[in-house]
Design brief:
Elements (H helix, E strand, L loop, with lengths): L2 H12 L5 H19 L16 H28 L1
Helix pairs in contact: 1-3, 2-3
Length: 83
């Protein structure tokens, strides 16, 4: 399995308990975090623009997206257990 497919697989597994609508909202929020933090445009993200597809760039960005999703899920889990 290519690493980009592996990142996507883990991301979908991580978000598997969410509804499709909630999953899309989470992914859009993650994309906005990436863009805001790195001063990118949404069109710079490889999964939003196939013209920006270079394997190393795609691998890096998908790994970053997975990492942010994991951090977000852990933060939400922590907040739910505190209340």
């Amino acid at each position: 399995m290519k690493s980009t497919d592996k990142h996507h697989h883990y991301l979908m597994k991580l978000l598997g308990h969410e509804t499709p609508e909630q999953r899309q909202k989470i992914l859009n929020n993650i994309d906005m975090i990436i863009c805001d933090y790195l001063c990118f445009k949404l069109s710079d993200l490889p999964w939003r623009n196939s013209n920006k597809h270079e394997e190393k760039w795609d691998k890096l960005m998908r790994g970053l997206r997975l990492m942010i999703a994991r951090i977000d899920m852990e933060f939400d889990k922590k907040n739910r257990t505190l209340h």
